[in-house]
Amino acid sequence: MSSSYEIVVGLEVHIQLLTQTKLFCADTTSFGLSPNSQVSPISLAHPGTLPVLNKQAVAQAIKLGLALNCQIAAVSHFDRKHYFYPDLPKAYQTTQLTEPILVGGFVRTELSDVPIHHIHLEEDAGKSVHDADPLYSCIDLNRAGMPLLELVTEPAIRSSDEAFAFLTELRKLVRWLGVCDGNMEEGSLRCDANISVRLKGETKLGTKVEVKNLNSIRNVKRAIDAEAQRQIQLLQNGGTIVQETRGYNADNNTTLPQREKEEANDYRYFPCPDLPPFTTTPEQIDNIRQAMPALPQQLQQQWTTTHQLSVQDAQVLSEEKALADYFEALLAIGTAAKPAANWLIGPIKSWLNEQQVSIDAFPLSPAALQSLIALVQEGKVNFSMAATKLLPALIATPDDDVAALAQQLGIVQADDSDATEAWVNEALAAMPDKVKEYQKGKKGLIGLFVGEVKKRSKGKANPQLVTKLLEEKLNA
Question: pTM score, two decimals?
Answer without folding.
Answer: 0.84
